[in-house]
Amino acid sequence: MSDTRRRVKVYTLNEERQWEDRGTGHVSSSYTETLKGTALTVTAEADGSLLLESKINPNTAYQKQQDTLIVWSEAENYDLALSFQEKAGCDEIWEKICQVQGKDPSVEITQDPIDESEEERFEEMPETGHLVELPPCEPAHLEEIAELVTSVLSSPIRREKLALALVGTGYIKKLLQLFRTCEEADDREGLHHLYEIVRGVLFLNKATLFELMFADDCIMDVVGCLEYDPALLQPKRHREFLTKTAKFKEVIPITDSELRQKIHQTYRVQYIQDIILPTQSVFEENFLSTLSSFIFFNKVEIVSMLQEDEKFLTEVFAQLTDEATEDSKRRELVNFFKEFCAFSQTLQPQNRDAFFKTLASLGILPALEIVMGMDDVQVKAAATDIFSYLVEFSPSMVREFVMQEPQQADDDVLLINVVIKQMICDSDPELGGAVQLMGLLRTLIDPENMLAPSSKTEKSEFLSFFYKYCMHVLTAPLLANTAEEDQDLTEGAAKVNPVCPDNFQTAQLLALILELLTFCVEHHTYHIKNYIMTKDLLRRVLTLMNSKHTFLALCALRFMRRIIGLKDEYYNRYIMKGNLFEPVINALLDNGTRYNLLNSAIIELFEFIKVEDIKSLIAHIVDNFYKALESIEYVQTFKGLKGRYEQEKERQSRGLSRYRRDARSFEDDEDMWLNEDEEEEDVADAGLDKCKSDYGKFMESEKVKESQDKENQPKRTTSGSFKFTFSHSAGAANAANGSKPPPSASSSGAKPAAPPSGQAARTGLVGLVDYPDDEDEEEEEENDDEEEEQSPRKRPRLGS
User: Fold this and answer.
1) CA 296, CA 488: separation in Å to the nearest integer?
2) Do 477 and 506 meet the contact criterion of CB atoms below 8 Å apart?
3) Pairing with 442, which of 525, 615, 693, 799 sits 20 to 30 Å away (CA)?
4) Distance separating alpha carbons of residues 207 and 213, to the nearest angstrom
5) What is the DSSP string of 604-628?
6) Which domain of life is it from (predicted)?
């Protein structure tokens, strides 16, 4: 038998009864020694690998559908389909299959799927027993017809025989004509029987019947039959919805009548499957699987036909980007593209690549840049979905477009900045759109998908671009909500920030931004380090440790944890010079005796420093904060830090090792980092004020609501710097734990906590010292010492 090669797509039916594309190749039909028979073999056109090798078994039922499809089952739950590029190729392979099975190529199905339970009875039947005799198509016989259709559903062989009889005699059109007669006569009993008949015919699950029933001249009558469910008191009005309510909007007139018919048919069949028919859990799992396939292949054909019509797509893009286009028209165009991209997901990977490349060449990204900046919420949402399809398809394509945008243009119109601003200004209280956009931004700045051999410089070029033109837009809300409060000279009271950081929606937004920045710390080295040190970003982030929203405090702590996790000495010196452990330790002490996630996360931070033996940080913590942490004994973390500190001092005293790097000062190291990108800093600063202004305008409406809620919210004491202020003395706290009170700061060799760099120490703020009333409280605690030993507290309650 000679080889016949034809270009095909191979599909398999998955567990969800959806067709999955297995690739494109060339099919041949030839004798295969390993299978001991004639087999269908598909070789991948990309690499020559074997996509399919299937023996043509004499008893396998092959179906030919829609002139270019051959479908069959190889096992109970393993269905296969070959979709041919040309009808001629399908006909030739079909002839080969029929030749092996000894069938006439004019048939649509080669075998009857006989159950084992019926096989013996079938062999005993005379030839005339194979035929299904249909009752006359008359109103008096409708009940008989309904009983016949319902009775065959449990038997695959009888379903097949009935389907052949219905197709061969033109019975479907006779039934639909009878439906019109019954409806005109308002014969409810007859209409109820027709409902059962049409539903049963659909459940026969045969593509040849679907092609008849879903033709233009039949489909609305099919929908009409399905309106008269006997279980309903009044019939549904599906036809009224499809003809009057559901309007087909042509954003650009479609001249191809075949394409127009295919779109109408697909929508109506989808409506029948999703709205009219019951869910698949109501009947057998395999019922209507062919209906899903019918819809799937229709969508593939629609996308292919639209993609090939370059004149149509060009006109759509022209109107989408034309400033004269009305908003309502532009909304329809964007929704069309959203639906178009959704349909494209049915394409096989190679065709999907060609599809998105076609959209890119026609200018989809510049168009999205325009529509995403519009005020229409529906347009923004649709544009975001289209953008997500593009980013998922090719992040590199989006990055390349962004970097090619005119550098002289305003930063505000850059596509990524438009995306960032849409994330920041999401009006949804749950920030659903912002979460989606954050995920897309994360994909775009992920170095893991910047490793294509053809673009080795993509990573460095894009990250330099992002940090120069976009990072200040991303961090604007964070910097606006963590600005240092100004001291009122007349009243001595701190002014409230213009936007309250304790607003829940604002807190959610800041958490998203911190998540992105944390990702940057993990995956970007030089760029994020330079930005953090230039903007003193970590200090601003740690301001959020004071937030009443624990999830936001945890995000700030996670950001610091990732920085310390890098074990980078530049970061460590920056933290020590800025005294940035102070807000973390304040949060730990302020948390009191509560045993929660914040408590555990802070302790894990110090445990990491201890286990990794980060000597510079250990010395800084012990020198400045040990007196405040010494009383925490339910974990050994802080004693362990002290132990490592003492061991290092002992080694130093013996001259066995050096502890500190003295080759150059921290200021020299810092200058090396901060002076390298002064131009980037200038550009970022230029755009920062504008971003703050935009963000402030958007959130202006929140001020009124916040001012109303403020009186009912618990307030913290505000100040220009963090401080250690305890309602109980350190001595009392230690007594509560059964330990001796620490000596005062004046008698200790440890340094008191220094105020943060750049801030003056204020009167009344004393760090890490005991209060004058310590002795009185100590006496009271000593009286209760025996009781405390019997029921020790987890930790001292240091917060008021």
Assistant:
1) 68
2) yes
3) 693
4) 10
5) HHHHHHHHTT-HHHHHHHHHHHHHH
6) Eukaryota
